[in-house]
Design goal:
The complex is a heterodimer of chains A (397) and B (452).
Chain A (H helix, E strand, L loop, with lengths): L2 E8 L10 H16 L8 E5 L3 H5 L4 H9 L4 E4 L5 H18 L6 E8 L5 H9 L4 H5 L5 H15 L4 H14 L20 E3 L2 E2 L8 E9 L1 H7 L4 E10 L14 H14 L8 E4 L4 H10 L8 H6 L16 E3 L2 E5 L4 H5 L3 H16 L12 E8 L4 E8 L1
Helix pairs in contact in A: 4-14, 8-11
Chain B lengths: L3 H4 L11 E10 L14 E8 L2 E7 L8 E11 L5 E9 L23 E8 L3 E4 L4 H4 L6 E4 L6 H16 L6 E7 L10 H9 L5 E5 L5 H16 L2 E9 L7 H5 L2 E9 L5 E10 L5 E2 L8 E2 L5 H19 L9 E4 L6 H9 L3 H4 L5 H4 L6 H10 L7 E5 L6 E9 L2 H6 L6 H5 L8 E3 L1 H7 L4
Parallel strand pairs in B: 3-5, 7-19, 9-10, 9-11, 16-17
Antiparallel strand pairs in B: 1-2, 1-4, 2-3, 4-5, 6-12, 6-13, 7-8, 11-12, 13-18, 14-15, 17-18
Helix pairs in contact in B: 3-4, 7-8
Classes of the chains: A alpha/beta (397), B alpha+beta (452).
Chain lengths: 397, 452
């Protein structure tokens, strides 16, 4: 059952030292409400996705605090690491769908936010590592980059991919962010910038940044959206799947099986395939993961995702092309991360899932200005941890 | 960040001794501050395949996919509450030199009492400081090398590793060990015994476990105490000498203070060497001391020679020979505490021992002075080559001051059990298998020792 996205709001992502997390939440919410032309009293409930307000800011009981800030008196918080807010979107869709079956038109605020820069970098790395298996991975010195580096090492070993194929993902996403004023980085990069080992083979620019940001969506039934007479986009379907939190326990290390299952379920229910998708916001927390996500979501066979990236060759020319830069997917254009992705737009972990849906919504509405790719069907794939959680959605005008 | 109850159960020895193959690996240059991992950068982690399943592990080597690796106990880190965490560290599986018997025609008579060493094990980290690299810093003109800790080493990991090696050689099961004593002057905790961590590794609970301190002679003290425990109670015990020896920068001790450990399983089931007799000599002589809370010991310089080391070692050795009615020629090997290369050789000569008796037990040139482990690693080195029915004299020295003298006679079992030893002491100290050593400069030494 499709729901309607009738308003979106997103803060600038970045190192926002002059803003508190409350400021950010208020800002994205106000913007989304303005877009939807609604008032707070119209909101029935709010689902808020946030990974770790308690360790970043010392605040537990997030939902109640959000009530105090926004004045919405039914708030539910969800947590699934970097997939926290796409889970919130899923629960909001459930509530809207359930209401609709009873003849109700629920209006729901879906919020995702994270304030990560109030901690020193080493501490932030500690907090983020909580999304991996504590007793086996964290205790043994794992960091998030190192876990994805283990995937990258094996991927390069098993396939014909090379390190510069990973870097090309970053170059493209930075190029895409050039026309996104909300992005953390609006700066072109080249292969030469990939220096500074973080966790081999991943260089600093293969990693998404630590960022602050908040993103809000106002959703309701399609029927009610029509009554309101607002511009809306249909969230046709959204599904969540989970898998083992440890890399070591994954059935096939290089298959994001949660993402594969979530996307297969959605494709099947909508009778679509990856070939029908024009644009996708995908979880490029590290460059290797854009490739693994493309494979999991059916855009390439296992071990062949890097070939899509190679359609960008020569890599030195990426910055000379028009932004957004598409992949060549079997002879047609596939736009991936027109927003700049997590890599260049920024990755305030709790905000990312909602931010992805906002980008696709605005693309479908043609509200993305110079980076508009004019898609007919868009999708999002949001990953929690190293693939322990995945949310896949499909949107259409 | 870590809540106390969780931190209290972080030691995990589940994978120790397992072998596997590197499935994927990464070199980490930026670590989290958790457990002080930021001090270990760069370091490697990997996914390791064991019987078809993957496990995540820390790697103490530069590895490639497909490399064969084996897990040993190592220091993972330290929690915010100051708790030391130990677990499995993976390193490349290698073939090392094995000990070889030095044949002998002489056969000494075995003592009546059949309690002695059932097995021994050594652990010395792979890192060696090239002392010449400190010359520019301090204006010295010295040469030589000494051992120092790797990223995953400390006194605790030394005790764990040598204990495991000793147990393996002895053939005794961990839960059969009823007594553990760890001799050290660089204990990881001021209060909480390293011995209890060893007991955790060995999975023995019905066990007396404690640490013992008497400067560099705590290791031989542990052997004597273990012997006496077994004599009264039967069964088997474990005596360990383990130190990450302390010496302040630019102090004379810095030139010699090394890292290492040795463990001895003592019991009455098929010993490889029997305890023939022992005694100790102690006086209130203050030549070297460290106050509670001080990071480095202080010492009395030249005073450490005649009134301290020589007097106590000489007296203990002479007293034991007199007690057992023996002369220097009745011994095949003699191991002295070796705080430098000079003292053991001079005392050997003074007492009437030949270089043939003294030299086989000297490790100093390869690892420096490993404090409580010093004479124990020397003893292990001699046991590696000793034939059956040979007599070995060990004389330790601990500042403060005292000397323990112990006489052992080897049994035919020493040859049988030697077949099970995978790595010679000569390999551990780096006289053999030099390829395995990592020779580093002064800056890395300072970092790994925790001085910078």
């Amino acid at each position: 059952m499709a729901i309607a996205i009738i308003g979106t709001g997103i803060t600038k992502f970045g190192e926002l030292w002059d803003k508190s997390w409350e400021d950010l939440v208020q800002e994205s919410f106000s913007e989304s409400m303005k877009n939807a032309n609604l008032e707070t009293k119209n909101i029935d409930s709010c689902y808020v996705g946030n990974m770790n307000l308690s360790r970043f800011e010392g605040q537990d009981h997030t939902a109640s605090r959000i009530t105090e800030i926004l004045g919405i008196n039914k708030v539910i918080r969800t947590e699934a690491a970097c997939a926290s807010s796409s889970i919130a979107m899923k629960l909001a869709a459930n509530e809207i769908g359930l209401g609709e079956s009873k003849g109700e038109n629920k209006i729901i605020h879906v919020l995702g936010f994270e304030k990560m820069t109030d901690r020193m970098a080493g501490e932030t790395t500690n907090i983020l590592s909580g999304a991996s298996h504590f007793d086996t991975e964290v205790v043994n010195g794992a960091t998030f980059p190192s876990l994805y580096a283990l995937l990258a090492t094996r991927y390069l070993h098993e396939t014909g991919a090379e390190e510069e194929d990973l870097h090309a993902v970053g170059i493209k996403n930075h190029k895409n962010a050039m026309h996104n004023e909300k992005a953390m980085f609006q700066k072109e990069i080249t292969l030469k910038n990939f220096t500074g080992n973080i966790a081999s083979p991943l260089k600093l620019l293969d990693c998404s940044p630590i960022s602050d940001g908040s993103a809000s969506i106002i959703a309701t039934t399609e029927k009610y959206a029509k009554e309101l007479g607002v511009d809306y986009v249909k969230l046709e379907d959204i599904e969540v799947a989970t898998s083992s939190i440890s890399l070591a326990k994954r059935e096939d290390l290089l298959v994001l099986d949660s993402a594969k299952r979530a996307s297969e379920i959605v494709y099947k229910r909508l009778n679509l395939t990856a070939k029908d998708i024009d644009l996708i916001e995908i979880h490029d927390c590290f460059t290797i993961n854009e490739i693994l996500c493309l494979e999991a979501a059916g855009f390439a066979k296992k071990g062949e995702g890097y070939k899509l990236v190679r359609s960008l060759k020569p890599y030195d020319d990426i910055n000379k092309r028009e932004s957004p830069v598409p992949y060549d997917f079997d002879g047609r254009k596939l736009f991936v991360n027109t927003s700049g992705g997590l890599k260049a737009k920024g990755h305030p972990v709790g905000a990312t899932g909602v931010a992805q849906i906002i980008e696709v919504t605005n693309q479908l509405l043609g509200k993305c200005g110079k980076r508009n790719a004019n898609p007919k069907i868009g999708a999002t794939l949001n990953i929690g941890g190293t693939g322990g959680t995945a949310t896949f959605s499909i949107l259409r005008r | 960040m870590i809540v106390a109850p969780k931190a209290l159960r972080l030691n995990n020895f589940e994978n120790i001794g397992k072998e596997g193959e590197v499935y994927s690996k990464t070199k980490i240059s930026v670590a989290s501050t958790l457990f002080n991992y930021n001090r270990k950068t760069p370091y490697y982690t990997a996914l390791i395949k064991i019987n078809g399943a993957l496990i995540f592990g820390l790697i103490d080597d530069k590895v490639e996919i497909g490399d064969k690796v084996i897990s040993r106990p190592g220091k993972l880190g330290k929690t915010e509450q100051g708790l030391h965490i130990y677990g499995g560290i993976w390193e490349l599986k290698k073939e090392f030199s094995k000990p070889q018997t030095k044949k002998s025609e002489i056969k000494r008579e075995l003592p009546d009492e059949k309690i002695g060493i059932l097995g021994y094990g050594v652990y010395v980290p792979r890192y060696r400081l090239d002392l010449t690299t400190s010359n520019r810093v301090w204006g010295r003109e010295i040469k030589g090398i000494k051992s120092f800790p790797g990223k995953f080493d400390d006194q605790g990991s030394y005790a764990l590793n040598c204990s495991l090696n000793a147990l393996k050689h002895s053939g005794v099961k961990g839960d059969e060990i009823g007594f553990i004593e760890v001799g050290s002057e660089s204990k990881i905790y001021a209060v909480k015994p390293t011995a209890s961590i060893v007991a955790g590794l060995l999975k023995t609970e019905n066990c007396f476990a404690s640490d013992v301190e008497f400067a560099c002679k705590a290791g031989t003290q542990a052997i004597v105490n273990t012997f006496n425990f077994v004599k009264v109670n039967g069964g088997s015990g474990l005596a360990v000498g383990a130190d990450s020896a302390q010496g302040a920068p630019n102090d004379e001790l810095e030139i010699t203070a090394g890292d290492g450990s040795a463990g001895f399983v003592i019991g009455d089931k098929n010993p490889i060497a029997l305890v023939e007799g022992y005694l100790s000599y102690t006086t209130d002589t203050t030549d070297f001391w460290r106050n509670d809370g001080d990071k480095f010991p202080k010492h009395a310089g030249r005073f450490s020679g005649n009134p301290a080391y020589y007097k106590h070692v000489e007296t203990a050795a002479k007293n034991l020979m007199k007690k057992l009615n023996l002369e220097p020629k009745d011994f095949d090997y003699v191991v002295f505490h070796q705080p430098n290369g000079k003292y053991p050789r001079i005392i050997g000569k003074r007492l009437g021992f030949t270089p043939e008796q003294v030299e086989p037990g000297i490790n100093f040139e390869f690892i420096g002075n490993t404090y409580s482990a010093n004479s124990l690693v020397g003893l292990a080195r001699v046991l590696d080559i000793a034939a059956p029915y040979q007599r070995i004299l060990v004389v330790s020295y601990g500042s403060g001051a005292g000397s323990d003298a112990i006489s052992f006679i080897t049994t035919p079992e020493i040859e049988n059990k030697r077949k099970g030893i995978e790595r010679s002491v000569k390999s551990w100290v780096g006289e053999e298998d030099k390829y395995n050593l990592i020779i580093e400069d002064y800056s890395v030494y300072l970092k790994n020792k925790g001085i910078i």
